Amino acid sequence: MAKKATYGSVKRFGPRYGKTVKDKFGAIEQEQRKKHKCPYCHYERVRRVAIGIWLCGKCNTKFTSKAYTVSKPPAIKVEVEEE
Ligand SMILES: [Zn+2]
C-alpha cells in the first residue's frame, strides 16, 4: 500500500476528526499560509493577517480578498483517491 501525501499542519489534531475532513482542511490551510502574489507590486510577499485581510511585505499594502486565498479562481483542488 502506497503512502499518500499528508498535510503537516493537520498533525495537531492527532487521530481526531477523520482523514477526509483533515485532508480537505489541510489543502485549504496550505493555500492560506503560503506566500501569495501581490496584485499591486506583483511580488510574492502577501501573507494573510486575518480572514479576508492580506498584507504585502514588499509594498506594505493591506487589502481585502478571499478568505483563504488571493487568487481569483481558488487554486485549491482536493482529491480524495481510492485505492
Ligand atoms: Zn505588494
Concise account of the structure shown:
This protein has 83 residues and is of the alpha+beta class. Helix content is 18%, strand content 14%.
Overview of the structural elements:
By secondary structure, the protein is α+β, with helices and mostly antiparallel strands. It has a domain at 36-68: Single Sheet (N-terminal domain of TfIIb). The chain contains 1 helix and 3 strands. The protein has one helix spanning 19-33; strands at 46-50, 53-56, 62-64. A 3-stranded antiparallel sheet has the order 1-2-3, with no helix packed on it. It is elongated and about 45 Å long. The model has no long low-confidence stretch (mean pLDDT 84). Zinc ion binds at residues 38, 40-41, 43, 56, 58-59, 61.
Task: From the structure above, extract its key features.
single chain, 83 residues, alpha+beta, N-terminal domain of TfIIb, three-stranded antiparallel sheet, 3 strands, 18% helix, 14% strand, binds zinc ion
Tell me the β content: 5-15%
CATH topology name of the domain at 36-68, in short, is N-terminal domain of TfIIb
CATH architecture field of the domain at 36-68? Single Sheet
Number of strands: 3
Helix content: 10-25%
CATH class of the domain at 36-68: Mainly Beta
Which class do the helix and strand fractions yield?
alpha+beta
Lay out the secondary structure.
Elements (H helix, E strand, L loop, with lengths): L18 H15 L12 E5 L2 E4 L5 E3 L19
Antiparallel strand pairs: 1-2, 2-3
The chain binds zinc ion (ZN).
